[in-house]
Design goal:
Helices cover 55% and strands 13% of the residues. It is of the alpha/beta class and 216 residues long. The longest helix has 21 residues. It has 2 domains: 78 residues, Methyltransferase, Methionine Synthase (B12-binding Domains), Chain A, domain 1; 121 residues, Cobalamin-binding domain (Rossmann fold, 3-Layer(aba) Sandwich). It is globular, with a radius of gyration of 18 Å. The chain has a 5-stranded parallel β-sheet with strand order 2-1-3-4-5, with helices on both faces. Helix 8 links the parallel strand 4 and strand 5. Keywords: Cobalt, Metal-binding. This is Cobalamin-binding protein. InterPro entries: Cbl-bd_cap, Cobalamin-bd, Cobalamin-bd_sf, Met_Synthase/Corrinoid, Meth_synthase_dom.
Length: 216
Amino acid sequence: MTKEEFLKKLSDCVVDMEEDSVVNIVKEYIQAGYDPQEGMLDGLVDGMKRASVLFDEEEYYIPELLVCADAMNNGIEEFRKYLPEAKKDDNQGRIVLAVVQGDTHDIGKDLVKIMLETYGYRVVDVGRDVSSEKIVAAVIEENADMIALSALMTTTMQEMKKVIELAEKKGIRKQVKIIIGGAPVSQNFSNSIGADGYSSSAIGAVRLVETLLKTT
């Protein structure tokens, strides 16, 4: 198969909930000499986006979406075996990563974590549905350089602003960069709440982190 055919097959595995066969497709993709990061982003993540559209259109429901997520995660775990070994360097940057309170959608967060770790950043993942108090406490405890926040629902976006406000209240805002991402989030929203940056993709988040931490 061509690379494009492989990517389509990986995407289809997620949409069609083929949580077992996706691993074999990943192995064949790698054996053909194609890039694992591209396979994750343009194959597996593409499939999850397609599944999310089906969910929005009420063709898929929560049970189907969960199996699609399992298929994507199985594929990502297999791809991780072929990514360069991450050499975590605290001097390069320590990042607290979280999905904000009220939001349990962590697929994007998990992918950002994989990408950041692949590029050598030390990531402190505090999970999903996390309060602003817990996020800021983790920043203080870990002496982090950055907070990366995710939200996938318009109803939870304002939680990002609460994190920024609490960081200011605790007196750490000037010492830590704060970036945001997620489907409903935009650059305009980032500007409006006083975040330091916004990215619409996992690889974009890596580039944003690199740029912001170089300026500190």
